[in-house]
Structures are given as C-alpha cells and as structure tokens.
Amino acid sequence: MNQLNCTSVRIDELNQHISSVILPVWSTRGFNDALGLPYDRISAPGQPILPTTRYRAMACVRQLYVFSVAGWHNHADRLFESLRTRFLDTTYGGWNYSIDAQGAPKETKKDLYTHAFIVFGCAEYFRHRGTRDALDLLESTLHVIETRFTTHTGLYNAVLSRDFRTVIDGPRQNPIMHLSEAYLSACDARHDTWFFDTLRSIAEQIITKFVHRPTGCITELPIGYSPLRIEPGHQFEWFYLTANKPDIFRHSDLSTWLNSAYMFSLRYGVSPYTGGVCTALNEYGHIIDSNERLWAQTEFCRALTISKTPNFVCKIYNSHISIKIQLSRFKKRFLRDYGWVESITKDSAIVRIDMPSTTPYHIVTMYSALITAYQKI
C-alpha cells in the first residue's frame, strides 16, 4: 500500500473514532440534557464521577463547532440555543465566562478567549447550518470585541471585569491567536474585506509585541515579560493559520518569522523518537515543561498538512514527521476506545486522564485540516 493510501486509512480511522466514540459520548453521558450543555469534563471509565461546579460558554461553543462540522444538526441546534439563552450578560453586554451547576451566572469576567470562540462557533454553525440567528450573534459579539477589548496600541486585552471598565489581564498571544482564527472563519461566512485589513493589522502587532527575534517564535506574553515561555504547539498553530490563508498573510513578515518558529519548535520541541510535542520551551530551546498535551499534537499534524512545510524541514527529521506516522503515533499514544488521554509524559505515562469538553474541537480541527489537504492531492 503506498504512502498516500496508508495516510488515507489513518484519516478514515480518525473519522471513525470521532463519529463512533467522541460524538456519541458527548451527546449522552457528557451532556446535561436538562440544561442543554456539555459537562465541563467527564471521567474515564473506572474513575470516580467528577462533581459538576460550572458550565463554560467556551466549552459550549467549541462543541457547537464539533457537532456542526459532523452534521449532527439537531444536537448543534440545542447547543446554539443553550449558548444564547444561558451565557449572555443582559446587564452589561457580552458573555459571562461560566454558569454554576444550577444555571446561574458564576464567573462573570469578560475574557477575549470566550468572545473569540463565540465568533468562531457562530461562523462555523452558520456555514454548516445556514441559521441567520448565528450571524446576528456573530455581529453583536464582534461589536463587543472591537469596542471593549481593543487597546490603544491596536491589540486586545485578554480579560476585563464584568462591566468592561477594569483590565484584569492585558494582551496575551493565545486569545489573540484564537481571535485571528475566529476572524478567518467569519471572513469566510461574511466575505467582508474588513476582516482582511484587521487580520493584517493583528499580524503586524504580533510581530511588534510578541515575536522573539532570535528564534522567530511567538511568546505567550509580550516581549519584556520574564521568564520567556515558548509553546511549540502554539507556533505550529500560528503557522497553520497563516500559511493556510496566503491571500491574507502572504505579504506579512509574520509568515517569515513563523517559518523560523516552526523550525525552532521542530528542532527542540518535538521528540525525534516518538514525535511527541512538549508543552513549553525557553528561548534557548531547553524544555521547561516536558508533558505532552493532546492539543499540541493536533496542531503539529495541522502544520504538516501545509504543502510547503517540507521545505522548512531538515533532512534529519524527514523520516520522523510524515503525516502517516504522526497519525499512527497519535492513535497509539492518545486515543482510547472510550475517548482519549488528555496529557502524557514523554514516556507515555498518563498525566491527566479526565476528558475536558473543549478537547474534541482540537481533534476535529485536525481532521478537517487533513481532509482539506488530501482533497487537494
């Protein structure tokens, strides 16, 4: 069997795992039917049942994306209805971070991460379902982001108080990256050139405030904060998002920096033996968190789907990083017949065994990237 066919088999196996394991779990025992919401996390078989203390808007909207892409429209419709009826802050606007086990507001801070995912989820729900209400919700959330979270430098604060008046956390790369992802999806849904201009502006601000010049990597906090932390998974994620939209980012220097970030992360953050992506490095390439989280593996696989990726890969790694091999490793090390393992050590010992409701988003975005890449071949 040639490599293309072997890879196709691995992709089909991933699809089968999503459709026969992940979706059924999160529409049954992972779902509170009374509230119409996914539990924040569920235990693996044989483990104690986890207490329910909250439901997050971000978890709801990530699952909205997952079930929309899968074509489970009835479940997606329920998630969308729960999202807009349970998490909106009717006093100050925007979205509450979470509600408690009874459905009352719990954490009422306003965070960019959640608002970005509302835009992303609504755009994807509209794309797959055609529900006009999703576009309306996208528009209103977009207005909140652009009028409340923006800074005078052109970036976005990460966390604000409930009334938006107090900055709790300033700009951080991860919420801004997911805002970029959300705006890319919204651009596909709305075909508005405003998103092109805004995304290019974000790219320039990321270069100015977050790119570590010696490595090209995007740091978690703005340059100047210590200690400096580089997460390989986020470098691969940025690489994929920008390389996948050359019409927007082709002329941005961010693409050049991310080529360097990709190589740095591959050289120091990916095991040549297992293909495992570690959690974090410092600026010298020393591993400061060796645990391997599932989401980082999916971002590496997404990066590998970019057709030009091999141009940046040293020959020493070529035999270790094919998509076929990475998918086989991912299946063996992270997937289980009941779902998945969230985090492991470099030696594959389990670090975190419970399953967060936010993780299927990572698995499905990886699958979608694989399907898109192989449709082009």
From TrEMBL:
It comes from the Bacteria. It is an enzyme of class 5 (isomerase). It holds the Pfam family GlcNAc_2-epim. The keyword Isomerase applies. Its EC number is 5.3.1.8. InterPro entries: AGE/CE (IPR010819). Keywords: Isomerase, Plasmid. GO terms for molecular function: mannose-6-phosphate isomerase activity. PANTHER family: N-ACYLGLUCOSAMINE-2-EPIMERASE (PTHR15108). This is Mannose-6-phosphate isomerase. It comes from Candidatus Vallotiella hemipterorum.
